[in-house]
Amino acid sequence: MIASLLWLALPALADVQEHLQEQYYDLQVASGESLSRAIDQASPIRQNGQIYHAYTRWQVQWNFWWREQRDGRCQIDLTRTQLHATITLPRLGGSDTQQRQRFEQYLGALREHELGHYRIGQAAAAEIDAALRQLAEYPSCAELQRQANQRANAILQRHAEHERRYDRETGHGRSQGAWLTE
């Protein structure tokens, strides 16, 4: 009996799982050719008429399990939040030593900018998981489910706006050194 009372007093358990993958597109540049132009031509990342050299796509998925009381009241017992992310970057081939050095410096700054996007996804996943675990008991499981999903989606929207602001503030990485001047 004491063990079951202790179990009822425990907060909801959480498990945030993260999966980050890098993928590449190939880029060939001839000696003396503009590195920026070669990346523009090779990049498969095109949105709203713009060409981007790198891109981070992240997705947060959440699940929760609840306990229903005899009177219908409902509370979350367990959450599982997953972050899946893919960073797409260029991979250089066929270059001279100077181009390779410039590319490696550029790639480091580009990767750091994209990791900033990933960190926003991490923050979203952590915040969603915490919000689900902190949800109060609701009069019904249907209301609990509605409130939980509504809160999680609102958090996603806030972090999507954070990403847009991050790109505006950094000039899509330009202020972080992810810029080629040629």
Key features?
5 strands, alpha+beta, 3-stranded mixed beta sheet, 4 helices, 46% helix, 182 residues
What does this structure look like?
Pfam families: DUF922. InterPro entries: DUF922. There is one protein chain. The protein is 46% helix and 29% strand. It is α+β, with helices and mostly antiparallel strands and 182 residues long. The chain has one domain (10-172). Strands 1-5-4 form a three-stranded mixed β-sheet. Strands 2-3 form a two-stranded antiparallel ribbon. A hairpin with a 2-residue loop joins strand 2 and strand 3 (50-52). Residues 1-13 have low confidence and may be disordered.
What is the distance, rounded to the nearest whole angstrom, between the alpha carbons of the first and last residues? 74 Å
What characteristic shape results from the CA principal axes? elongated
Give the beta-strand count.
Answer: 5
User: Describe the biggest sheet?
Assistant: 3 strands, mixed
Quaternary status: single chain
Give me the Rg, rounded. Answer: 23 Å
Number of domains: 1
The computed structural class is: alpha+beta
Share of helix among residues?
40-55%
Largest sheet, spatial ordering of strands:
1-5-4
Q: Report the sheet-strand fraction.
A: 25-35%
Question: What are the low-pLDDT stretches, counting only 5+ consecutive residues below 50?
Answer: 1-13
